[in-house]
Amino acid sequence: MAKWLQAKLESYKLPTEIHNEFEDSRYLRPVFRDKTDLNAGILSEELKKHLISSKYLVVVCSPNSAKSKWVNDEVKVFLEMGRAERIIPFIVDGTPHGGEDECLPQALRELKGENEILGISINEVGKQKAFIKLVSKMLGIEYDVLWQRHKRQVRNRRIATAVTLSILLALFYYLAVPLSINLSIKDEEHNLPMPESAIVTVCGTEYQLSKIDTTLVVDNIPGYFRGRNIDVSFRSTY
After folding, report:
1. pTM summary value
2. Which of 4, 109, 138, 235 is the most buried (most CB within 10 A)?
3. pLDDT for 210-224, tens place per residue?
């Protein structure tokens, strides 16, 4: 979930009409994801530098992470810096203050009353809405505004995809799907005997005829001949 969330945040493009502290960039990147062994005991200096330089701390909350001293210590660093309002619990499993199903680390559980930090739960609103709620909190704008914009973006992306596919299918049909034509060949005066050499040439390919009064089916004519004249010739020893 942390890997998915990092990828979503780094690829998210900020709305053009939003003017805020992120206006110098259209993206929220870079997003640092702690890949350290969660069983380690002491926060490294390198990790502390990342925490100090980060505007927000997104805590992926679950019953497993709630038991991790490492996760709890990272939260405590942010709290000690006075950045409680910039901690965002992103709940992927479990329940806040839920006993055995507890998903919040100890440092967040200890915050009571007006200091309590409310989390965003994917079980309550789904992954996409939870993600947009997270971004809206980071941008400091109303969720509904961002969600409507997100839906328009998804709709426009689907329309663009449909148009692109239509163009590709048209090109495929035009270039790749071969043509088939039927040629009706008749000796209307019935003057020709059975030819020893009667040949129809279509697009440079010769077809030997077994009789004069016949219909010749020619397949696999390249698709780029569609809408163009096709050269057909007939010759016989008679």
Report:
1. 0.63
2. 138
3. 877 888 899 888 888
Angle formed by the axes of helices 127-139 and 2-11, nearest 10°: 60
Task: Give the phi and the psi of residue 89 in degrees, each rounded to 5.
Answer: -70, 125
Which residue is associated with the tokens 């919040």? 104
Pairing verdict, β 179-185 and 198-202: unpaired
Residues ≥6 apart with Cβ < 8 Å to 30: 10
Peptide bond preceding 63: is omega within 30 degrees of 0, i.e. cis? no
| Complete DSSP assignment for 11-79 | HPBPPTT--STTTT-SB--------S-TT-SS--HHHHHHHHH-S-EEEEE-HHHHT-HHHHHHHHHHH
Question: Which two three-digit tokens encode residue 8?
Answer: 């979503």
Q: Following DSSP, what letter does each residue of 114-153 receive, concatenated? A: GGPPPPEEHHHH-HHHHHHHHHHHHHTS-HHHHHHHHHHH
3-state secondary structure of 236: strand
94 in Cβ contact with 55 (< 8 Å): no
Average model confidence (pLDDT) for the chain?
84
Separation between Cα atoms, residue 41 and residue 131, nearest integer Å: 31
Please name the residues in contact with 76: beta carbons below 8 A apart, sequence gap of 6 or more.
Answer: 107
